[in-house]
Amino acid sequence: MRQYRTIQRQKGFTLIELVVVISILAILAAFALPRFAQLSEQAHQSNIRATSGALSAGVALAKTQWVSNGFTAASTDVQGFGDDDVDVGADGWPTSVVSDDTSTTMTAAKCQEVWLGVLQSNAPTVTGATPEYSVTVNAGDCVYTYQADAQNSTIEYDADNGEIITTVN
Q: Is pLDDT at 63 greater than 70 in this prediction?
């Protein structure tokens, strides 16, 4: 009886194959990483624009409810909008919530109230240790500055005329 010896060949990758694969991965990474960085920036910008749109819609809805209720003067606790606690100035634009202040002279506290009262339950945070938006007042307007990207993008709200101005940096 004859015996055959089989020679086991080592299985694995050659050095050339490994170098080729690593080179291909490096090329892909060189193209992909800048694209991912850009996607992150676009996501921040979309977040700001979406929040601005929601604030604008909320402000318009508060005024619409004020008009629907038949009011022609400043009013506290507009019934039929949100939690029935948004206060509006003489022209029907939101001015506060908790403080029952219908004056269009805004403070940072009133700006926070308007933000939370108009945007309601899913509002980005404006209070706490790490708020998504910081709140300041500039020339009587509420200025909400987006914090996550450190680009100083802002959403401004003017309680005198309901205007929302968005600046995305």
A: yes
